[in-house]
UniProtKB/TrEMBL annotation:
It comes from the Bacteria. The lineage of its organism: Bacteria, Bacillati, Actinomycetota, Actinomycetes, Kitasatosporales. It comes from Streptomyces mobaraensis. This is NIPSNAP family protein. Pfam families: NIPSNAP (PF07978). Residues 8-100 form the NIPSNAP domain.
Amino acid sequence: MISIHLKYEIDADKLADFEEYGRRWIRLVNRFGGTHHGYFLPSEGDSDIAYALFSFPSMAAYERYRTDSTTDPECQAAFELARTTRCIKRYERRFLRPLDTGTEAPPAKTPA
């Protein structure tokens, strides 16, 4: 599994536009086979920083999503929303590997 962490610098005066952008991408990432863990918007503290976190089963699945999103009309509309409203000033993308939680049963031991 690969998780993608995005840090956004947003225009605080265009928070409603960014919220709409986020709502669209949550649905789109899930439609493309990922799991969106949500957008995290400013509350207390910095008024212009937001985060998003989503996962795909593999880097190959993520790369398929990225390629397919370039021709998908709904994805293009979400990109256009950000471009026309200028709600996003910049963003950073990080790729993370989740730590195994250790909740899976250990492999069965074979008799000696």
